[in-house]
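Usage

Read records sequentially. Each one opens with the input sequence:
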Amino acid sequence: MLMGMTGAVATAQVAHPDQWPKAKSRGLVDSSTEARITALMKRMSLEEKVGQMIQADIGAITPADLRRYPLGSILAGGSSPPIGSPDRSPAAPWIATSRAFNAVALEQRPGHVAIPLMFGVDAVHGNNNVIGATIFPHNSALGAMRDPALIRRIGEVTARETAAAGIDWAFGPTLAVPQDDRWGRTYEGYSEDPAVVASYAAAMVEGLQGKPGAFGIQRGQVAASPKHFLGDGGTTDGIDQGDTAVDEATLIKVHAVGYPPAIDAAAMTVMASFSSWNDAKMHGNKTLLTDVLKGRMGFDGFIVGDWNGHGQIPGCTNIDCPATFNAGLDMAMAPDSWKGLFDSTLAAARAGTISTSRIDDAVRRILRVKMKLGLFDAGRPWEAKSDTIGSPAHRAVAREAVAKSLVLLKNNGVLPLKASANILVAGDAADDIGRQSAGWTLSWQGDGNTNADFPGATSIYAGIAAAAKAGGGTATLSPDGRFSTRPDVAIVVFGETPYAEMRGDVRTLEFEAGDKQALALLKTLKAAGVPTVSVFLSGRPLWVNPELNQSDAFVAAWFPGSEGAGVADVLIGDSDGKPRADFTGKLAYSWPKTAGQFVLNKGMAGYDPLFAFGYGLNYAKGATVPVLSEVAGVDASLANTSLFFARGKVPAPFSLTVDGGVQRSAVDSATTQEGAVQFAWTQAGTARITGPELALVREVNADLNLQITYRTIAAPTGPVTLSLGGGKVEIAPIVGASNGWQMLRVPLKCFREKGGKMDAVTEPFALSATAPFTIAISDLRLATDPAGTVCP
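and closes with the structure output:
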């Protein structure tokens, strides 16, 4: 027995379908289509049927592999590149990749039944894998709009730009109802309130797919995949892929509310969740996947897994898991494990471990979706419409969404600004489209992007500058806030850096805990007597009381995406200061009063937010905010689990020590005076960073790396060993050949393969040498960017 988050006793992980809401897929089943499927399946071999049930990632399969392994689907993971091109590519390489795989799948050869593939991507806020695409605000922003009609239009634009890149399946919308804001995927949820999520579910599905019975890739529509079924937003302590320990009633009334309207709107696929319900992995829960989703809710499409999610079921591995198919999963996402999973699933089918009827049901559902989506029909007219990607009309929809999602938290009379004013635009995110777009943008975690990767997009600064110019004013960009002529007002743009699932999990809601750079900038401007407007970028509400106190106005801009001009549309009035547009956004998430209010949701016992759910000021009805307490209530060092050295210091809770013949001193980095640490060996010794125990198993599986920015001052004269968690690699040949500041990225799996224990890491960095050697290090952290990784 487990205690649920509501305080009620959570019974075992067996669902009772009669307690769940009813729904019914529309437009997916008809006699003509079913007859075509039956005739096709009679021609298919068992190998071809099993192949339909497995999906591989383009980074781990080639088109030629399909001649031996007739898989049913290909996906492009968040950082997987199209064939022969970089991962940051425009539409053409993506179209070529899709066509290359389908060309083999549709070959006319003896003994082969030609069946088109489904090509899926995480198009979660626009077709965010493709250079030049329209990037919409993330879902936590869209929830603030309370505008289902605009959500439908966003879905339509996303579908057209996805189809125009040769892709026919979008893994969305996310229908999670985040309950603990420490969860790194909170920004993928529309709201903490189930009613807001439910109001958007059907609209987004219809936007992506079209109305039931009137969908097709030839119309610029793609298959939707509501996710993640079920309870992904309710995991204990907000831990991604964790356990949702609630009773069945809570699972129904909080976490399941978006699925009936999505199914009624004819969602073609549903993605299973990594998470568990009362310790039972969703990928193996037959009572929910089969009895509830396919039975009670009448879902006629197919259920797809998440990235090797089947391998997390007890008794399963990534390459062997009959249990997931027997539970009701129809297609396993086996990105890099597809070959082994194909072989083991085929063996299980031959042995009867997976019944013929279960296999036929899965294959029928998959073929049904492919037929209804028009994949068996000739013609892909949208692939000739590459100019639709990032078109002015589409960007206008995104710009409207940005403006409507802004939430005004504080305004002491400074907003709206006169367009004729002399405006200083400060902050490290002011002119950074990657920062404002965040995770799931061109790369999985959204890192490594520059403004050059966003042709046609507009940074927040650029939008402000255009509005000021049109009104006879000026806007000067100064990230550090310095100025020679005193401005009339400063707009400071700051906030969270990009992240996605897993690395986005946090342990405190305090913004910039222990390293308050934005606060220092705000204090400097306040001391200079400059009225200041804060534009805060985040995927979730965070404790920002100190920053609020230093701001004359404070705007929650969330992660607005590629159309930064939408911010200026509301902040900047005309030349006389009359508003051009008002604030309409209302909080879809409650805003914390302390950094420890992790679970803070409308209607809960003891509900005591700083700004309640639904709060949002406007110009017609303003209000001031009194001076707020600056006591966070949570140890700031808890925030840091991945940054070991930066800007000349080792951040808490980590510490640096040296022993033996190692001398340590502060030196300049490439950009900052005394921004690096120099280690000089005169004889054998070790420099090491230690800290609290870190569990890095998920990070290893997600291909994260230890990233070191360094400069070799005196080449090693003997072995140099780099270790993490006890796993050691030899790097003398690498650091000995360097010149100037360099970056070394070593995958965590390399340390595991060399004996590292990743479940309890207390020493995330140790550098040992046995002979004279000198090196300077300016940055040391866990990172996600795979470019240039090396396993020495």
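Summary fields computed downstream for this record:
- Residues 1-11 have pLDDT under 50 and may be disordered.
- The radius of gyration is 27 Å.
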